[in-house]
Amino acid sequence: LAQVFGSRQHSGPDWESTSAVTVSALALSNSMARLLGLLALASSVAAFDVTLYYETNCPYCKGLITDELARTLADPAWAALINLNMIPYGNAMGSGAACSCQHGPDECKGNKIHACAKKLMDQKAFNQFVVAFEQQLVAGQTSVALGQNLASLAPGQAAAITAC
């Protein structure tokens, strides 16, 4: 799989695993979902476990989530081929309660909102939440503004996410 996704060195994932694939948004090609589908069809694995570490305001992550993953998750045939575990992750620095993120304070807020939503939602609902949230960011909204109006993105969960 390392050859498929490029020779970029990665410190965490076990690229040799055949039943689980952990990828970063920067290591993915535009046809990632289709490639995983073909691999699933050619193997005895019913569905691939895919873990995506993403940053809420990273332009590459937003593009991947709102383009390839949104289309893949919207198509039941393709969505059935992956068990997608999305993990809000950030290139953040800080000590104690103070934190700074690579793409600014709005990203820190977005990553926190996503981490709280992940804790409270089942995987399918969370994946849909992430796609909808990222689509709003691409459309020009901010994480701070979206955090103040979560009712449309997380029906029935907004208060719990905000309180987290």
UniProtKB/TrEMBL annotation:
One of its GO terms (molecular function) is oxidoreductase activity, acting on a sulfur group of donors, disulfide as acceptor. Keywords: Glycoprotein, Secreted, Signal. One of its GO terms (cellular component) is extracellular region. Pfam families: GILT. The keyword Disulfide bond does not apply. Its main location: secreted. InterPro entries: Interferon-induced_GILT. It is found in: Secreted. The keyword RNA-binding does not apply. Belongs to the GILT family. This is Gamma-interferon-inducible lysosomal thiol reductase. It comes from Strombidinopsis acuminata. The lineage of its organism: Eukaryota, Sar, Alveolata, Ciliophora, Intramacronucleata.
